[in-house]
């Protein structure tokens, strides 16, 4: 066995499963289907499914590409960085969901946002 192989830390099945779960959660949070994410990555839907269940290894370039799509740092998926969903990601997610609503529902949502803002201002004094 080469010295390089001896120095590399072993990737445990549990770590691969955790990475896959984080990737799946980020994809679902943003509303992407497996098919959409797989096409973006350039792999089959079944390959992405295997990645998300920890049954297929993901290389660094694939992980970097998905991290960009999911608007998260690579370290979020590897557990090196704590979860920090940026304001921009939340707004994009909400905008996508709101765009699917009827005009009446969007109007109702606007009234609810006004209610929440007023409630916050009342609490702050």
List key phrases describing it.
mainly alpha; 434 Repressor (Amino-terminal Domain)
Q: What is the count of DSSP helices, taking H or I runs of 4+ residues?
A: 8
What about the largest sheet? none
The CA-CA distance between the termini, in Å, is 68 Å
CATH homologous superfamily of the largest domain - what is it?
Answer: lambda repressor-like DNA-binding domains
How helical, in percent, are the residues? over 70%
- The number of E-state strands comes to 0
CATH architecture of the largest domain: Orthogonal Bundle
What is the N-to-C succession of helices and strands?
HHHHHHHH
Number of domains: 2
The fraction of residues in strands falls at under 5%
Work out the radius of gyration: 20 Å
Unreliable residue stretches: none
State mean pLDDT (0 to 100 scale).
84
CATH topology grouping of the largest domain: 434 Repressor (Amino-terminal Domain)
Query: What structural category characterises the helix and strand content?
Result: mainly alpha
Q: Under the CATH scheme, which class of the largest domain?
A: Mainly Alpha
Shape: elongated
């Amino acid at each position: 066995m080469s010295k390089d192989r001896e120095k590399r830390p072993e990737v445990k099945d549990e770590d691969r499963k955790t990475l896959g779960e984080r990737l799946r959660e980020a994809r679902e949070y943003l509303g992407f289907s497996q098919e959409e994410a797989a096409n973006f990555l350039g792999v089959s839907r079944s390959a992405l499914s295997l990645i998300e269940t920890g049954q297929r290894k993901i290389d660094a370039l694939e992980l970097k590409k998905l991290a960009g799509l999911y608007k998260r740092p690579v370290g979020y998926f590897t557990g090196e960085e704590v979860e920090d969903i940026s304001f921009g990601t939340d707004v994009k997610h909400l905008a996508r969901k709101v765009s699917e609503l009827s005009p009446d529902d969007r109007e109702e949502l606007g009234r609810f946002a006004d209610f929440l803002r007023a409630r916050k201002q009342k609490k702050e004094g």
